[in-house]
Amino acid sequence: MTLNNENDIERLISLMAKLPGLGPRSARRAVLHLIRKKSVLLNPLSEALRNVSTNVRQCLNCGNVGSEDICEICSDEKRRNGQICIVEGIADLWALERSNNFKGQYHVLGGVLSALDGVGPEKLGIEKLKHRLLKEKINEIILALNSTIDGQTTAHYIADELQETQIQITTLARGVPIGGELDYLDDGTILAALIARKSF
């Protein structure tokens, strides 16, 4: 192996190690596996990465990703039902889409308010959301933000900012998950479940 090849491999390992869930050791194993399966994995992966890098862009309307300036969800007339679900990131949007239950549109903030990380309202897509509400016929905003302190702070901030719009603002239910056992749940989840209890 030449020195140049070694540098290329180390650079790939270093880049892979920056991915979420991969440290240097996991990245090294992944790269070695890719090299061993060059024709089956490495070459197709390289082509797929090149295509994504060239073709994928952020939706100008909601912040999702796709191959067009306006994503498939935003351009789908059937999904213009007056509901916008606000999520922190694209991974959250994809999680809701996997449920195959929500038939409205989304708005991706691109983060949450965080004083520690220096993320204020101006760094989130809140102003873009306000412009959408002026031009689209929206009757419900669903706040689908994570149950973290920063997530809930962001949800309250958005609710306060949109209070004058007279649009119904809802949030996802919190509580005991399907198949969950009380003994294994944290105190906050149990408290949320008790507060959000309903008739049996």
Tell me what the structure shows.
The chain contains eight helices and six strands, in the order αααββαβαβαβαβα. With 200 residues, it is an alpha/beta fold. It folds into two domains: 3-55, Orthogonal Bundle (Helicase, Ruva Protein, domain 3); 81-171, Dna Topoisomerase Vi A Subunit, Chain: A, domain 2 (3-Layer(aba) Sandwich). The strands form two sheets. Strands 4-3-5-6 form a four-stranded parallel beta sheet. The chain has a two-stranded antiparallel sheet with strand order 1-2. It is globular, with a radius of gyration of 21 Å. It starts with a helix and ends in a 5-residue tail after the last helix. 14% of the residues are buried.
Class per helix and strand makeup: alpha/beta
Count the helices. How many?
8
Briefly, what CATH class of the largest domain?
Alpha Beta
Largest sheet: 4 strands, parallel
Proportion in helices: 40-55%
Query: What is the number of domains?
Result: 2
The assigned CATH architecture of the largest domain is 3-Layer(aba) Sandwich
Report strand %: 5-15%
Mean pLDDT: 89
Order of helices and strands: HHHEEHEHEHEHEH
Q: How many β-strand stretches?
A: 6
Distance between the termini: 69 Å
Overall 3D shape: globular
Radius of gyration: 21 Å
Unreliable runs, pLDDT <50, ≥5 residues?
none
What's the CATH topology name of the largest domain?
Dna Topoisomerase Vi A Subunit, Chain: A, domain 2
Strand order of the largest sheet: 4-3-5-6
